[in-house]
From TrEMBL:
CDD domains: LMWP_ArsC. Transmembrane segments: none annotated. Keywords: Arsenical resistance. This is Arsenate reductase ArsC. Coiled coil: none annotated. Gene3D superfamilies: 3.40.50.2300. SUPFAM superfamilies: Phosphotyrosine protein phosphatases I. The keyword Nucleotide-binding does not apply. Residues 5-130 form the Phosphotyrosine protein phosphatase I domain. The keyword Transcription does not apply. Pfam families: LMWPc (PF01451). GO terms for biological process: response to arsenic-containing substance.
Length: 132
């Protein structure tokens, strides 16, 4: 990678895992990484338990909205991290693809979302260390 790396997080609804990952990476990177998230079948809004779990660590997702995965977003990314989006993510040569197997927070309360958030945070910090 030359210049500022761009990371794209992708899950099905872009209402939970990918939103948490994007917010956590943006927070920890402090502007050193361009971060985006998208979903193969975006929901109407962010999961309320996800919003609450992120607010507990000082990150506000209240203005975020699920976004549709586009070919342009994948093409622009240096690293594409999928989280259960199946085969919906297009593959382009020269990109780094990672698949993070993480529990889906859909339908869970905040007490069950916290461990998912914390595991995403751990992985995001490892990724950031690799990108620096």
């Amino acid at each position: 990678m030359t210049g500022k790396p761009e990371v794209l997080f992708v899950c099905v609804h872009n209402a939970g895992r990918s939103q948490m990952a994007a917010a956590l990476l943006a927070h920890h990177a402090g502007g050193a990484v361009d971060v985006r998230s998208a979903g193969s079948a975006p929901a109407d809004s962010i999961n309320p338990a996800v919003r609450e779990a992120m607010a507990e660590v000082g990150l506000d997702l209240s203005r975020e909205v699920p976004k549709k995965l586009t070919t342009d977003a994948v093409e622009a990314a240096d690293v594409v991290i999928t989280m259960g989006c199946g085969d919906a993510c297009p593959i382009f040569p020269g990109k780094r693809y990672l698949d993070w197997q993480l529990e889906d927070p859909a339908g869970k309360g905040v007490e069950d979302v916290r461990p998912i958030r914390d595991e995403i945070d751990r992985r995001v910090r490892e990724l950031l260390a690799e990108l620096r």
